[in-house]
Amino acid sequence: MNADSLTTNISQKKNAAYLSLIVGFLMFFLKIFAFIVTGSSAILSDAIESIVHIFATFIAFISLLVSLRPPDDSHPYGHGKIEYFSAGFEGGLIIIAAASIIFFAIEDLIFGIELKKLDIGAYLIFVASIINLGLGLFLVRIGRRTKSLILEADGKHILTDSVTSIAVLISIIIVMITDFKILDPIIAILVAINIIFTGYKLVRQSFRGLMQEKDEELIDKIIPALEKVRRDDFIEIHKLRAWSAGNFHFVDFHLIIPEFYTIDESHSIQRYLTDSLRKEIGSDLQTMIHFDPCKPIYCSYCSKENCHIRREDFKSQIQFTKENCLRDFVIEKVDN
Predict the structure, then answer these.
(1) Residue 132 half-sphere exposure, CB side, CA atoms within 13 Å?
(2) Domain coordinates of the chain in residue numbers?
(3) Shortest CA distance to 90 belongs to which of 189, 137, 160, 16?
């Protein structure tokens, strides 16, 4: 990613975050007005979900600004992990919002509910659901394009808000037609269950990042990239690990090279592999390579020409497969 692309990436993230925050406030006031007009518990629950959206979006916006800071002396690996804190926090807030929805819905089931001016409420909630649907899809798309977990999480949250609004709208229309008022809190409970599931997924995703769970998608990109730039003196790769934090990706592995190589030659390989992998994966990739010297047992797997320490003829290369690269490699277990 060049400087212009990086600047565009950051600008898209900030603009998307601003838009989410502004729309969040507008939707909250719209839904509160709809609740005042109708007295619907489902609409109130929808408004409560919007309060969480505003609070979570504000936290997400602050987290986004922090995550975009470059690495410094105190944070040499960057600030990307704050995105996982934000996503987990937002997931937790979604679950709390769902619990609140269930509480108010059960209260209405027990004590009953008085509804009024449902037609006005239906129009207002329809507008809110359409706006949130468009905003949610937009944020998820921008989040994935810019690799921002914060924006993607915020977009998913807003999509759940849109689902809530649509379900509430359907319940209002049915109540208007049938006068079956108990449907209002029942719909609220069903929607809350869906919201809890979404919140759980965000919390789970947050834990994966904070615990540095291996990035399978990144690994699946790294291994073919390593094979693509392979040289005849790259004998074998093992103990490959990869994880991500926000926009930053980290990869480390062991590489077996001829034992007579100097430190300068090893550093040259480090630069070559880092530059090559960044061209394939992106400029935000950081690599750490541990160089292991070859042993006589590797001779039959080494294709380097004019090797003055060779003891056996070359037979076949050790392939850079996922299975080989991820394990603590034992040469005896490789088939000729």
Answers:
(1) 31
(2) 3-210, 216-333
(3) 160
CA distances, 40 to each of 60, 179, 325 (Å): 30, 13, 58
φ/ψ (deg, to 5) at 21: -65, -45
Which letter, b or e, does each residue of 53-65 get, where b requires 16 or more Cβ atoms within 10 Å of its Cβ?
bbebbebbbebbb
Dist CA 292 CA 255 (whole Å): 6
Task: Give tens-digit pLDDT for 131-187.
Answer: 989 988 998 888 888 777 677 877 887 887 788 788 788 888 888 888 888 887 887
- Residues 67-85 have a mean pLDDT of 66
**Spatial strand order in the sheet of 236-245:** 236-245, 248-257, 285-293
Architecture of the domain spanning 3-210: Up-down Bundle (1.20)
DSSP letter for 246, please: T
Question: Is domain 216-333 given the CATH code 3.20.20.300 in the classification?
Answer: no
Give the CA distances from residue 7 to residues 1, 2, 4, 13, 60, in Å, rounded to whole numbers and listed in that order. 10, 9, 5, 10, 20
